[in-house]
Amino acid sequence: MDKYPKQFRCCQLAICIATTLTSIHVQAEETAVSDIITVTATRTERTSAEVPESISIIDQERLEQEKMFNIADALKGTPGVLIQSTSGGSSSRLIVRGAGLKAQYGIREIMVLRDGVPITDPDSFTRMDFIDTQDIEQIEVSKGPANIYATGSTGGAIHILSKSVFDNRRDQLRLGFGDQGTRNLHLRKSYTSDEGNALAFTASHRAQENGWRRHNEYESNQFSIKGGILPTDNSELEIELSLTQSEMNLPGTMDEAQFHQFKRTGEQRDNNSAFKNSARDSDIIFFNSRLTVELDDLTLRPRIYYNHWSHFHPVTGAINVNPGVDIFGTDLELDYSHHLVGEDNLVSGVTFRQDRTDNARKYAYADILTAGPRIISTLSDRKGELLEKQDELNTVYGFFLQENLRPTDHLLIDAGFRFDRIKIEQDTWSSDTAYNYGMGNYLTIPGSGGNTSLSRSFNLFSPRIGASYKLNNNFTLFGNIAQGEQVPFSSELESNIDLLSATNRTVEVGLKGRAAAWQFDLSAYATEVKDEIIQVRTDGETLYQNAGKTDKKGLEFSGTVQVLKQTIPGELQLGLNYAYSDYHYDEFSEVVYLGRTPTNFDRSGNQLPYIPEHYYSLNLNYQHPNGIKLRVQADSWGEYYLDNANTETYNGYDFVTSAILGYSIGPHDINLNIQNLFDKRYAVEVKKDTRGDKSYSPGAPRSLMLSYSYQF
User: Fold this and answer.
1) pTM of this prediction?
2) Domains (range + CATH), the chain
3) Are 117 and 329 in contact (CB under 8 A)?
4) Which element (helix H / strand E) includes 13?
């Protein structure tokens, strides 16, 4: 009988804090600060304070200061968002309120969009290779399930908005150079005709040699053309074509002895794997078109997009060669303004997408060094025997609808849902030879190969209802109830064909405050996840299974305040971001292989690994009237468990600090960016498998980059 109060303890705490704050300040009718406009939560332009859910926005001012080699540079410090770059370059490990934890690499369970186009696969894997991080206007993070943009996502949506072709204020030349062979070059130039039509060219080059560890060079070259046409007075068409070539060597993780050596020397000279030549090299073509047509109370927003990518991806046990994935999609959106109870609007639409992979292949490594039966080292990434060929087809049909009601000037109600049907189909040919994780080498079993097929369909229903109530010019209360569903990744189904889709149900309440000298967002949530897909690491292999039930409770706070306004010239702003996370398995029986025998171990009541109970970030921003700028940010990641069995913890890290010192005069801007200012030696991620073996991903040592930009 006491489960209900326990599950909603964080929500009750947020309500108490909100009541206290509003009772103190409800009479203080300060002039509210101009709020940032967002579209990610509801597909409708709205201030962030009005959105009845947690949303974080990284604006252009912050983006211009950061190094921006990947989105981790911008999102670090965001409460509820755990993001690390384990390999540098475009590679990021991203978790939003626990969603994405199961990912062995990359980003899963979180929908990532670019200008409204999903770059997340139908089965939840996201590739960030082709995102030009220098061509970003704003990043919006919507947390929680049932986002109206998010097909099959329980973790919410991250929307990357690029610089509009119609905005010539963003034309610039940017040059950046730093230690570790860092280069960051960017050029954007646009042209606008007398009729308002526009054309923009963008080129970017990013590279790092990363000499502090072996096999971790990175280089990316990108080029894009954007066109903007005004066919009529009430319509607007934007078209983009971009090309990307990315090469990234993956250094791998370290064992405990190697990690201690790294802490002494600041260098990683080896990894804990026999596979020394892992990499991900990609070639990508991306096309996107967006049309907006306004017809009185009706606005039409059709999108059509195409993406083609190929890659060379040596990993543990196999060299993956994919000659090409073709992705076709459309999103036909309709926005209807009406007067049901006030100034209301209805957003609805349909989604279709198909991802087709033809003739993806896996090869054995040709050049290996063995000791006894085990491979102890690869000597190159040269392809050897063909192990597997695979064709895959993922198809999505979806429908979404959301009614946005304004019964009064103070009250806003959102109610809507998404329904998606996702079908995953695979045809695989396997040879008689495969990599055996237990033996640590290739094993040939005559007659074991052949043809197999996989076909699974999932129906996903994601409803949400939320409301925000404006108490006065400064304070807005909000709350929502939502459900989202998450499909298994195709490779997860290969390891466990019986995996079920996970269902996330969340209740959230909070308070948002906006004023000229301060602002804050406070929220609390209680989430129950049924059939959560869990990663199990055993004998060097990653397997997946469903946990019966997972409970997640959290509290998040983000706030800034201007200080010393009458004492010092310019503006000095202090900020605090904090997240409390209590995530545990309510019902979970983990299958562990003891030798070749599977054994069930009850993990019910255990905490989820890798998620710290406390995460906080402090920041200071200062701008002097003469153009001097300073930003300092210190991030702390609390203690967490290394495995599902909760046998051991890692202490995390405290106050890993970055600093940015800049100066602006007219169109000229210069910044010195220092990462890991105090050169701390720590791990950004530690894992432990069922055999007790630990792996460490090191945090990058102190690095400096000096950049100059000229605004045309």
Assistant:
1) 0.89
2) 3-711 (2.40.170.20)
3) yes
4) helix 9-25
